[in-house]
User: Fold this.
Amino acid sequence: MPSTARCSTPPPAALLIAMLWLSACAMAGSETRAPCPPVVDYTAAEQARAGDEVEAMPEGAVIVRMLSDYAVLRDQVRTCQ
Assistant:
């Protein structure tokens, strides 16, 4: 009895066409933007208190660098909105 395994596999061109067709569908969703996270507003009093607390920290405190990074992220979120 002859083997039918070769008949059940699609030709390579059919696989290529299917792959191109599916990738074309994926392009439609790539232009959507993720929603921007909200920016928390702080009062002038809170900002002044935070500034005083940062100035009271020892020289070279790691949290000061972390707060600087946080400020950059806040600026990026503002431009996102």
Notes: The two ends are 69 Å apart (CA to CA). The chain has a mean pLDDT of 80. Residues 54 and 61 are 9 Å apart (CA to CA).
